[in-house]
Amino acid sequence: TPVTEEVIIGEAGKSVVLMCRNVSERADEVDWFHGDPGAVPPLFSSNATLPEDARLSLVDNSSLHISVLRPQDGGNYTCKEVLNETVREHRVQLLVASGPSNLAVSISPAAALPNGTVYVDKRDTVMFSCTSNSHPEPTMGWTFQPPNSTPETFTEVNGTSTVYILQNLSLRFQGNYSCTARNPLSGRSETSTKELLVYYPPPSVPRCWAQTAQVGLMLQLFCNWPGGYPHPVLQWTEEERDLENSSWVVNATGTGDTHVETLSSSRLLHGKEFKCVGIHILKQGKVEPTCTVQISAPSLATEPLKTCFVGGTVSLTCQVMESNPPARISWLRNVSQPEVEIRPGGRYLVTQEGSVSNLTIQNCSHDADEGYYICKAENPAGLKEAYVSLTVKRLDIAAVTSSSLLETKVQFRSPLGEWRKAGGWKKEGRGSPVAFSVTFICPPAHRNQDSNDVLVLVDSDGEGEEEREEEEATGNSNVHRVTALVNGNSTQAGCGYHFTESKHLALEMHHCTGK
Ligand SMILES: *[C@@H]1O[C@H](CO)[C@@H](O)[C@H](O)[C@H]1NC(C)=O
Ligand SMILES: *[C@@H]1O[C@H](CO)[C@@H](O)[C@H](O)[C@H]1NC(C)=O
Ligand SMILES: *[C@@H]1O[C@H](CO)[C@@H](O)[C@H](O)[C@H]1NC(C)=O
Ligand SMILES: *[C@@H]1O[C@H](CO)[C@@H](O)[C@H](O)[C@H]1NC(C)=O
Ligand SMILES: *[C@@H]1O[C@H](CO)[C@@H](O)[C@H](O)[C@H]1NC(C)=O
Ligand SMILES: *[C@@H]1O[C@H](CO)[C@@H](O)[C@H](O)[C@H]1NC(C)=O
Ligand SMILES: *[C@@H]1O[C@H](CO)[C@@H](O)[C@H](O)[C@H]1NC(C)=O
Ligand SMILES: *[C@@H]1O[C@H](CO)[C@@H](O)[C@H](O)[C@H]1NC(C)=O
Ligand SMILES: *[C@@H]1O[C@H](CO)[C@@H](O)[C@H](O)[C@H]1NC(C)=O
Ligand SMILES: *[C@@H]1O[C@H](CO)[C@@H](O)[C@H](O)[C@H]1NC(C)=O
């Protein structure tokens, strides 16, 4: 048997030429066999007419040309040369390679964007599979190319399919995934590339709130749904659309973690409910999460009547009961038209804690401060005003300078004259509560006043006048005896007591032992 001298590789569908090497130019006859000449009939002979198979032809009277190769054309061919009755044979092995073809790539679970890029859910286990037809078996591999980087091969097998599984995906898994199948015989290869994006939905639900714009009195509706990739689509609509009664037609969509819709202010906004729908590409087909915000104009609660003593301090309180967005609270004085907004500073202190605003007036003056105050609360849905009437009463202050309750020295500043303290404080009785008494002599100018003067002892540290204990005031007398019953330890008891007279006399004793 002749030895194989040559191996020729052909590809299915293409043509190939099998040479009959060293053939003599004067050869009488050249015959080709697909197999052993003894075992099979000649496939083609230079002496014969056209062969049965039209794909076969001779080149240079000796080489066999086969077009449109088929896999079954592969095998051992023998070329037989007859010259002067001597026969020479030699052998060519033909290998027919086919493919790769029908390369199929799938990434699942995944969905495709209009531009062909596929996206997966970060939380999923993703299977990358690739199949191909090839003879002989192809070498198949996946490569991954992150943006602006070089590709890296992450799996390679000899076989018609390759499967790779990825878990715990993150953004760094985004990029181009290519599957390549290569025919080891022909070296021909085919590649399919898919761009992959790793998406994830926002972890929670959208949050809505209303706010007043910095400039103007515009209503801003905020809808915030962070933490997703890509950004969600947020859509503001009116919850209950009443087109006939509403000048508000809100249907606005934005892309981003926060979507702000701005509306001009109107009383019609009161009671309106707006809804934000969060739409994320990974939650398509599911119930879209929403949040709503209801707009309400402010309403107010105030104490309409307040009293302050001359030289004293008073706080006017105003509470906004319902207001969305939160109202801006301001204090005004209606001494003139238009009303003047009170600016904090000087004797005015304006503080706000949550929805409660306090206007504190220090060193009350009858002329400057008595009158009406207006608490004004305003948001884009409305405006509310409430009046507070302030009465300023005369106040006499007894300044106590001693360091011990029993040695109290009382001084008076009073437009009515000097009050005098007759004697010192006397401790009365034993045990608890401890009683103290002190006697005052009222100034002559006061004597003709209403005779029902009452001296009231109040604990300025406590809740108003609760600790007031006992007073003794004789009608026409100018002598007032006041007894303080002090609960507990007498050394602490003197701290911050003051006496108030029901009409226009107040004695204040600022006294703290140990301080
Ligand atoms: C063909 O010829 C070459 C040189 O021309 C020679 O080396 C080789 O052995 C020959 N082959 C055969 C089968 O005669
Ligand atoms: C092929 O053979 C024929 C006759 O047998 C001859 O006329 C022709 O010249 C040959 N061709 C070549 C290229 O050798
Ligand atoms: C062709 O010849 C080689 C040895 O030269 C052998 O291994 C192979 O099996 C043969 N092929 C066929 C189809 O007979
Ligand atoms: C072939 O044989 C003939 C006679 O039989 C002879 O004349 C001729 O030279 C031979 N040719 C070769 C190439 O051997
Ligand atoms: C396809 O669309 C996505 C989303 O818009 C984009 O991020 C990506 O770059 C696009 N890819 C190509 C190849 O255009
Ligand atoms: C993926 O390949 C496409 C086409 O070559 C290219 O436009 C795109 O930028 C690539 N994407 C990445 C993330 O490299
Ligand atoms: C695939 O086959 C080729 C040739 O037989 C071999 O060199 C290579 O190592 C094989 N690769 C794998 C991954 O088995
Ligand atoms: C809101 O706008 C979107 C598109 O911008 C539209 O598809 C939808 O029908 C609108 N909804 C209403 C209630 O008008
Ligand atoms: C202030 O408000 C009170 C109560 O409404 C009103 O009687 C008074 O006339 C107002 N004063 C001014 C100056 O507007
Ligand atoms: C309080 O007001 C009076 C009169 O307006 C003024 O004389 C006095 O200095 C003020 N006291 C304080 C502590 O501001």
UniProtKB/TrEMBL annotation:
Keywords: Disulfide bond, Immunoglobulin domain, Repeat, Signal. It comes from the Eukaryota. It comes from Chelonoidis abingdonii. Residues 460-473 have a biased composition (Acidic residues). The gene is VSIG10. Pfam families: I-set (PF07679), Ig_3 (PF13927), V-set (PF07686). PROSITE patterns: IG_LIKE. PANTHER family: CTX-RELATED TYPE I TRANSMEMBRANE PROTEIN, V-SET AND IMMUNOGLOBULIN DOMAIN-CONTAINING PROTEIN 10. Residues 2-79, 109-197, 298-391 form the Ig-like domain. CDD domains: Ig. Residues 460-479 are annotated as: Disordered. This is V-set and immunoglobulin domain containing 10. InterPro entries: Ig-like_dom (IPR007110), Ig-like_dom_sf (IPR036179), Ig-like_fold (IPR013783), Ig_I-set (IPR013098), Ig_sub (IPR003599), Ig_sub2 (IPR003598), Ig_V-set (IPR013106), Neural/epithelial_adhesion (IPR051170). GO terms for cellular component: neuron projection.
